[in-house]
Amino acid sequence: GLQYTVDLLVYRDHRALSHLLADISAAMAQLNLPASVSWRDAGDNAQGEAARADMLKGLGVGIILLTVVLVAAFASARMALLTVAILPLSAIGAFWGLMFFGKAFALPALLGIILLFSIIVKNGILLMEFIHQREQQVSAVQAAEESIRLRFRPILMTALATIAGMIPIALERSIGLERLSPLADVAIGGLLVGTVLSLLLLPMLYLWGAKKAG
Fold first, then answer.
1. Which of 7, 36, 72, 154, CA to CA, is 20 to 30 A from 43?
2. How far is Cα 49 from Cα 47, in angstroms, rounded to an integer?
3. What is the pTM of this model?
4. pLDDT band of 17, cuts 50, 70, 90
């Protein structure tokens, strides 16, 4: 039969939807609603949860496919795994960025993770490819040193240019883009950490892997 429904619309400012939903759940539990009355979340949070689950699955599949492509491109599973291994470490900086700006891990933040991973992977491919090619002529240590020296400027310029463009969005100074501030927070924090890790940790991991292989 027909059911009567009541839609309650609320506006949030700075609190995360998940926190608001927890408060609403606690308040509804105290009302002792009749058995014939039920309630559910059908707003942005419910849609965001479904979209976030789909994007996480897509991100996982994308990383697997990226690894397969890199194995074929480098003709080395070790180099492909080393390039991809930097991604979860750069995500640490992404969560630091969210905490620094006081934002929750919402759907825009997940989009920022995807943006961050694409930049970090590009930097990693540049470094690993240069080391691999240069190692054919010089020692692995010298190849790693040259990769840091020669790739330092373009990698740093890419990171700084992206961070500079994200600052107005992170500070919610871009009209119409306030809801995308978590994306900018993730990109800024992740690039700060991921760029340093790419320039320092990746060559070290390559040398460590070369030593183990030798």
1. 36
2. 5
3. 0.69
4. low
